[in-house]
Amino acid sequence: MQSESAPPLRVAFVAGVAPGKWFHRWEERFPGHPLASAMVDDAEQLAVLRDGRADIAFVRLPVDKDREELHVIPLYEELPVVVAPKGHEIQAFEEVPFAEVEDELFEYNGGPSDRLDLVEGGAGLAIMPMSVVRHFNRKDLRYRPVTGLEPFGVAVAWRRDNEAEAIQEFIGVVRGRGANSSRQASVQRGQQEAAKKRREDLAASQSKEARARNESSRAAKAARGGRPGARSGGGRPGKGRPGAGKRRGR
Length: 250
Hints:
With 250 residues, this protein is α/β, with parallel strands linked by helices. The chain has helices at residues 20-29, 47-50, 65-68, 98-101, 112-120, 130-136, 165-174, 185-225, and strands at residues 9-14, 35-40, 56-60, 70-78, 80-85, 96-97, 126-129, 141-147, 152-159.
């Protein structure tokens, strides 16, 4: 992959996602191609792709990939937990049925940090991915796994109209492909270039052989035309000249 003076590959991720392992693998494989990363709120996870602030984003599902015109590859699932202020009765249980806490939940569309602020302030309880709660690590909050809910999904997404080689390479890193995997963009490009070179070499070789045959044929014709007694026209000597071979009477 061409990396000299390349702009950084911009990667966004939501809270709770830990992309460090993928960043490390990228740096090992492509030390000359920098990464620029930024954490964004869930509400912004698609906006950064739409407006070009990010080339790739680690997002939480569900995502309407067709409406958003995105490629979306699910990666893993996260455990949902209910979050409550310290001292809440959920602390007495190892896990809590969703039906038991549903009436205490509040509606909020902001970021996870602000949501935790509201829980801490007594606005109610919140259902969140365990990784997010652990990421912010609020000492005055408690959480327990919730049963009866689907897990939160995490995926990697990028725009369908952006098929840059660097993006394809990064997706390969995330999916665990080796540097020499035939599905890596740089390997495919190398294979295509090698195949093109073989075709060009074959065409050049065939052209050279054709020229050699033509030269040999011309040389053979020239040799036949220069032998003693060689004749042209395909007839007997003198046949081509009027009156040749006959004596005219006086």
